[in-house]
Request: fold
Amino acid sequence: MSKSKMTYLWIILAILIVLLLITLYLTFLSPFKKNIGLSPQDVSVIVGNVAPTIVSITPISNVILNSGTTKDVTVIFTAEDLNGASDLNDATASVSFTKSGEATRTSVPITGCSAGAPSGNQKTYTCTVTMQYYDGFGTWNVQVSIQDQATSTTQLSSTFDVDQLFSTSNTASISFGTVSPGQNDIISLTDTTITNNGNVIGALKVLANNLKGVTNPLELIPASNFNAAGSSQAATVCTTGTALANALSTTITSSNLPRGQSGSNTETLRYCLDVPGGISTQTYSTTAPGGIQWAINL
Amino acid sequence: MGNKFVKVSYVLLLIFIFLLFSSYNIQASYAVNTKYYNEKPLIMYPGESKEISFNLQNCPAKSPECEERNENISLQQLEGIEITEILSGTSYYLPYSSVDNYITLKVSIPESDTIGSSYRILLRLSSPPPPTNGTIQLGTSYDVGFPVLVKSQEEIANLGNITSINNESAPSESKNLTWIIIAIISLLIIGIIVVIILIIYFYRKEKYSLKL
Reply:
């Protein structure tokens, strides 16, 4: 081998050694090491940081929402970090619930989860997520996540079910004022406001019954003489409203009970009455002997 | 004539004192929860019996939307009587703000049922309205209905085995940088070793050729 080639090799060796020394200096000793993204945590990574993992999520049983209020749902999961349980960043533990078309529900940042005592390389976290009474029923996705001190993030997802919640409230009676035999198209004095305190939506039904005479219960005003309509057709209830029927639950097709927070979860029903002719002067009521109450039926 | 006018007026005034006055009492805020509905049927196999429950509440939030009173609820079964037995009775007393009352049903699928057959269970819960001055008193009722599907035990077992757990790790930037630095240092060390080996090799080769 020529002397010049050996010289080249020596030069290459020198360059490589210099590069190695520069790299080691920048990595461990340079005051600018943070500028190249190497924080003290990165040093620990160099000696073998392993991203954390989430070992398990305790299955969440069916969620039963509370009528008209919130429900705290507890989620328990176990995370592991092979660098030691102390490498898990407790403040980053979080849980979120998602479902298509629904508002995402998440645990409160930093304080929403509490860490249990370390067990080997693992810690168990207990988190709380608040759901609303109007959150949709069906299958929700739950995702839990946590970071280690080097900001490596791990996630695990699963599912749980939310039950249907039937819950409504409404004013307790209907009034028409004084009417005459044979008088038609009498509009109820007040509408019935139905408030949805649950998560079931849809058209309302009215379970109607004949009104009986208080003095002479053999005389009656048939339920079929009443029409009912939702807010969308309230102005035309006498012409386009749905005729009610005795002892039957009749769907009011123009009604639609929505779900949502207070103020956006109501529907109103309006009624129209045709008084039959030829009946005697007396009070007709559901409270007459043998009379049966009506009901708003969801 | 005057006498007749008074008589007619009197009759008109009395005529049908009909309904009349609406009290503004609020009816009911009892609630029922169900884990089964049209999109989530109860699935059972022939010969199986299962107890299912429905949670009852009475204004747990004590909100102004409902009056502070206890509720008496009645339960009526409208469909599915042939496979259902109501274990908890048909009357329920719900104290104000309670959340821990339950309706319990026992559903039994006949041994002779064929796979693929189905039923429908429909329950109606009703509460009486509070005493009011109104002529038409309005209660609140809920129709809780759901299908019952008859499947084989194998199909049911397979449904239970479906899991949806995904584990993902998102490596951080610092971790990526760490690996880049480790790779650079490794390459440099390997390069140095290779060059040293070459130098030694050529040095010995040269020395050998000189001896010859």
Chain B touches chain A through 86 residues (CB under 8 Å). DSSP finds three helices and eleven strands in chain B.
